[in-house]
Each structure stands twice: as C-alpha cells, then as structure tokens.
Amino acid sequence: MKIQRDKKQKAEIRKKRRLKYIAVLPSFITLMNGACGFMAIVLASRSPAFTWSLSFIRRSYLTSLSLAGFLIFLAMVADMLDGRVARLTRTTSSFGGQLDSLSDVISFGVAPAFLMIKLVEFHLENLRQEAMQFSMLLGRAVIFAGILYAMCAVVRLARFNVENDEDESAHMNFSGIPSPAAAGVVVSLVVLHQQFMNRIIDQASSAYYTFEIITVTVIPLVTLLTGILMVSRIRYPHLANQLLRGKKSPATLLAFFASGLLIVWNFQLAMVVGFCGFALFGFFRWIIGSFHKKRQSRPAADSPSQ
Prior knowledge:
By secondary structure, this protein is mainly alpha-helical. It is built from ten helices and four strands; from the N terminus they run H-H-E-E-H-H-H-E-H-H-E-H-H-H.
C-alpha cells in the first residue's frame, strides 16, 4: 500500500510539472532568434564569393557572409525584444528562459564561429599556393578557435540559467561578456571585412596578400579571446537597463545622437566600434579595478612610519 501511495504521489508531481501553457508572442520572437541564426549558418555555407542582390534596396549587393552577419544582427534584435515583451505581457516563465538560451546557442554560439571558419578557410585556400605548411597549421588552429568559442558560449548560457535571478533590478551587470555582445564582436569584423574586401581586391596583389594574412590571423585570435571573455567573471554592464532607464544627462543624449549618426554614416564600422569597444571597456575596467584593489589591500606595514 505504501509503495502504491508513493508511486501515486510521484505521478501527481510529474503531472504538476507538465507545461500547461506557452506564451505565444514572446516564444515566437525567441524562435525567430533561433531561425535567424540557423539561416545565417545556411547562407555562410555558400561560397563567400557569391553575392546576393536585395530587390527592396537599390544597388544592394551583399556576399553570403555579409547577409549571414546581418541575420545574426537581426537575431540580436529578437533577443532584446522577447524578454521585454514577456515582461510587458506578464508571461515570463522558466520555459521562456530555457527556450531563449537554446536559441542563443544557435545564433550567438554556433553561427558566429561558423562564419569565422568559412571566412578564414576562403583565404587559406589562396595562401596554400604560397605557404602550404603555414596554411595547414593555421587551418587547424582556426578550427580549434571556432570550437572553443562555441563551447564557451554553451557554458556561458548554461551558467547564466543557473545563476539567473528573475528580479529585473538584479540584471544591471553581467558576469562575463554576454553572448550577443560576443557574437557581435566576431560578426561585425566579418561584415566589415566583406566591405573592405570589395575595395582591396582590385588593388595591387601585395596589398591583397597582406589583407589575407591579417584576416587569417587576427579574426580567429579575436574569436578565441572573445570566447574566453564569455566564461570569465569580468563584470559587464547591462546597457539596456543602465542607459535606457530613468533620466539621463544631456551628455548621454549627445552620445546617443553621435552613435546614431555613426550608424547612418557607416553601419559596418559602427558595429565594430560598438561591440569591440564594449568588450574592451569591460576588460580594461577590470584591470584598473584589480590594480586599485591591490593598492588598497597592501598591508599597513608597507606605509611610511609617522
């Protein structure tokens, strides 16, 4: 009788844990995030030399990698909206949080790493004719950097799920650079690269060769370091919560206005400045803070005697 009662209680607990309903609008936006990341991978698998003409934008020709990068930027917009919509409609749930992290793994973990690998592989094919041994060794290092970045994103999102606090007032800082910002660092460099490649490809062969060397060394290194920043404990500010809430000074308004002008003038360059600047800001702030803590924690015996 006791065994049957225990089984009955466990069955009732399982029934209570079943998902009874799903918030449609926030979940749809979250799924759009994952869909954009998946389509970015599909487009990146095409030849980087293949160009797309967007009929709704006059004289717009984008390479496969550029279009894939813009899809990841669109996924970032969806990632910002789903949480806001869920809070506005009062439909926040644990299911939504888990769904958001799974979509982020695709859009901000796997897709940026895949874009970086496809970009570097394209240039390594040209370098193999001149330096076979160097290109083969570098090709393995690029695969390693891409895998490490993707795994760091997975660990970062899993850790965020465990440590996440549902109180929005606690979301003023991140532990480690958030995965969308990390993806923005990698993707913005890829998109800017595609913009410059169309200009440099017509230049002298020596200039294009230097451009290829920089591409195959700098972008994988930045990807590797950004992945490490994701799993670090360096504090990064939550810009949406800190800058968009409450009253701000006129200087903040001017900074927003200048950022808007930069985006209109050159969107690709604005993304690189914004995302890379955000990553470096947290890193250097951590270094300066650590230096000040060491100075303050020196024993009193080291101070000069009165």
